Amino acid sequence: MGNGPAGSEDPATVPLSAADLEEICAIIYRRSGMVFGETKRYYIERRVADLISQRQAQSARHYISILRADARETELLINSFTVNETYFYRELHQLACLGNSILPEIIRTKKPGDRIRIWSMPCSSGEEPYSIAIWLLENWPLVDAYNIEIVGSDIDTSILRQAVEGIYGDRSVSRLSADIIDRYFEPVDLQQRRLIKDIRESVSFVKGNIVDRQSLAALGGFDVIFCRNLLIYFDDVARETAVHNIHEMLYPGGYICLGHTESMSRITETFEPVRYPDAIVYRETRDK
């Protein structure tokens, strides 16, 4: 058999032109707030090449035309660029802060039976919101006295489906004790475990885009928001939009937990840093 016409090339292996790369990055930015550019060329080309092959596009320009015409294709593009590095009990000190300091402050204005709403954004494959549920069951004595609602959301629809399934490998549970694994997980096979039904049903998952207020409208308000290691991917404009939306989603006096390299103080004055024994968090200060 021959090798095809002389000079023919697989469009998935052809480097993106500067204009094509700029347009793809602009689409990602408009939809997600994530900033990519020439310095991330290899990372971008690798993921776009996979999508070009899957769609059997004739060229990068053809693939871009598909993106323009099909919102679902843009969603798949965004999914391919999200970072889903997570595991159970990550940054455990913030969970300790939640139970030891944040929730005791919140219940000062609540009575037994009232709702406490906690939001994990981005929630990735679910380890963070499920960790909150497990940690509270294990460590907060008043967990049954209040109606605790935990919501996980992410812009990546494929990873949300994984979160709902609640199936995890050894790496995801490596920080958990054998006792917790035995009580909260059921074996699937030699490498995977599934969270028990009670824990899976304790968390609601929904698609959400932190830079798109309309996509968050149905979620309602929250007492505590975990938004860790997301703002570092945004430029100043997208970061300010995200923080404004976070502020709008918090009940007055609500709290936000950021990643250890992030600081709300450099972005806005509508939050004040609060130094608790376990962690530094931020509290909403502006009247709504």
The appropriate CATH architecture of the largest domain is 3-Layer(aba) Sandwich
Number of strands: 10
Major beta sheet summary: 7 strands, mixed
User: Taking Cα atoms only, what radius of gyration do you get, to the nearest Å?
Assistant: 21 Å
Strand order of the largest sheet: 6-2-1-7-8-10-9
State the helix count: 11
Overall, the morphology is: globular
CATH topology of the largest domain: Rossmann fold
Order of helices and strands: HHHHHEHEHEHEEHEHEHEEE
Q: Mind telling me the CATH superfamily name of the largest domain?
A: Vaccinia Virus protein VP39
Structure description:
This protein is an alpha/beta fold. It folds into two domains: 11-81, Chemotaxis Receptor Methyltransferase Cher, domain 1 (Orthogonal Bundle); 92-284, 3-Layer(aba) Sandwich (Rossmann fold). 41% of the residues lie in helices and 19% in strands. It is built from eleven helices and ten strands. The strands form two sheets. Strands 6-2-1-7-8-10-9 form a seven-stranded mixed beta sheet. Strands 3-5-4 form a three-stranded antiparallel beta sheet. Helix 11 (236-249) links the parallel strand 7 and strand 8. The longest helix is centred in the first third of the chain and has 15 residues, at 18-32. It is globular and about 65 Å long. The termini are far apart.
